[in-house]
Each structure stands twice: as C-alpha cells, then as structure tokens.
Amino acid sequence: MTAGDTASDTPAAPVIHARALAKSYPGGPAVRGVDLSVAAGETFGFLGPNGAGKTTTIAMLCTLTAPSGGRAEIAGHDVVTEAHQVRRHIGLVFQDTTLDLGLTAWENLRFHARLYGVPAAAARERARMLLDLVGLGGRRDDLVGTFSGGMKRRLEVVRALMHRPRVLFLDEPTIGLDPHTRAQIWEHLRLLRERERITVFLTTHYLDEAEHCDRIAIIDDGRIIAEGTPAELKTVVGADRIELRSSDDRAAAAQLRDLFGLEATVTERGLSVRVADGAAFVPRMCAALTVPIESVTVVRPSLDDVFFHYTGRTIREEGGR
C-alpha cells in the first residue's frame, strides 16, 4: 500500500467464494470443479439446463450436502467446518414450497424467527415491514393453504429474510408460475434487494430471468462453461441479425451485397443478414435500398445463443429442472 492509499482501496472479500467445488454420487459426478466469486450486493445468476448441477451447487453452498472435493465459504465461513455460522448468514428459498399450509402467514414467519432467535417484538415488526413490501400485508392472518402459487413464493422469500441474512439463495424461484406472476416476483425481489442491500444467488433456466442478474455463470454437465455480465456473454456470439421482408428479396439481397458487402440468406420468411450493430445499420439500409421494404426486425444475441455457442444445444431444448 502506498502513502496515498487508504483501507477503502482494498477490494472487499467476496461474500460467496468457491474453489474446485465438486460433488459425486454413486451414479457419477454432479458438479465438477466449480469456481465462484460473488461480491456483496450482487445478483448472481446460475443458468443451465436440467441436470446441469445448479441445485447440487446451491445445496453445497447452503450446507445441505457436503462437497466431495474443493471448498466454499459464505461470508468468510467454511461451509463444512463452520456450517452453523454459514446458516446464520443465509436465507434459502427451495424449488418446491416448504411452508406449513395449515398455518397462517404470520405463524409461518414467527416459527422461522424463533428458530433463528429473533426476539418476538422484532419479528413482528420485521414481518409487518416485509409483508407490506411484497403486497401481503393484508393476508398476514390468512391460512397459507388459501394462497396462490405466486403468493406462497413471495411469503417464502419473506420468511428467508426474517433473520436478516447477508445472502439470499433462490433455487428456481419462479418455476411453475405464469409469466405475469413471474414478473411480479422479480419486481418484489428488486424492491427487497434495494431495501435489504442483500446478495442474491439464484438458479434458473429462464433466459429472461437471467437478464435481471448483474453477472451470470452458465453451467453444463457440472462445469461452468462461461461467466460474465449478460452483455459480456453475448459478445461471444457476435453480430446482430437483421430479418427483413421486401417486395423482391433477391433484388434486396443483391443490393445488400453490392452496397454494403453483406451476404444475405434468403429464406421463405424473407432475408437474414448479420451486422455488428443492428440498430445503427437499419436506418442506413432503409435509406440505401431501392427495393421497397415491408418489414424489418433486429434480433439481438440471446443467452440461449451463448449456450448454443458453447454446447451446440439450446437451454430451451434441454429444459430446466
């Protein structure tokens, strides 16, 4: 450290840290040497298809199953030798509901708070605040068995936050929910993250959900095959795709070749051509072509394209759970 440096210049230790994390079962390896580093306050997505190792990884990080190899720390505590301390720092929402349907929302939250030693008065106030934040304040004393799937999921997120964890783990948090409810869940998660200043680690196979994350790791067959921000990952795919229909697609293709040096593919749906920046290119193209254009669509590279780039398969083809 130089004379001008201060303690604040030192990068903060990651709140989630794993090196060569592995898990094997009698049928074979499920996770093969995963490295992870997640900073405090990040929303980190673990994206992959069915059987990729997402849930097994989250189970190791949450002390639910011991690694076969490697090591991991949560908030500086080893997940094997300091499992009790790790559990104090994490909240977990499972794929399937673990709420007691015969209790009210408040009774479910109170039971969880007692397990973590949260004083009764503090638990009541925290429950009130969190339930209001996710739109369940008016259902506090209703039986959970009367709740919709989306309401149960919101309540499980609230329960996981009752003891003020540093990290919230979400294993496929919106699986089985309709698109409108999924969007609502994500809006509530955004508000909770801002309010709680918490680190979020989620597994998902929904590509649109992964776009909400600050960074993503793509896992396949137990190995991380790519990691970065959504924008960074898409750069490996390359150019945007322009899809257009015209009054004479073959003439338009010839003009694209002569004017811009671009080779367009003619399909039964029209023309398809790759360019570096579709949004910037479309106005130039429309001004230059003399063939009347009927429709233009700019298709940006997607995370599914990234997965295909590395594996030759798509996540949509593989499924998620």
UniProtKB/TrEMBL annotation:
Pfam families: ABC_tran, DrrA1-3_C. It is a peripheral membrane protein. Keywords: ATP-binding, Nucleotide-binding, Transport. It is found in: Cell membrane. Its main location: membrane. SMART domains: AAA. GO terms for biological process: daunorubicin transport; doxorubicin transport. GO terms for molecular function: ATP binding; ATP hydrolysis activity. SUPFAM superfamilies: P-loop containing nucleoside triphosphate hydrolases. Belongs to the ABC transporter superfamily. Drug exporter-1 (DrugE1) (TC 3.A.1.105) family. This is Daunorubicin resistance ABC transporter ATPase subunit.
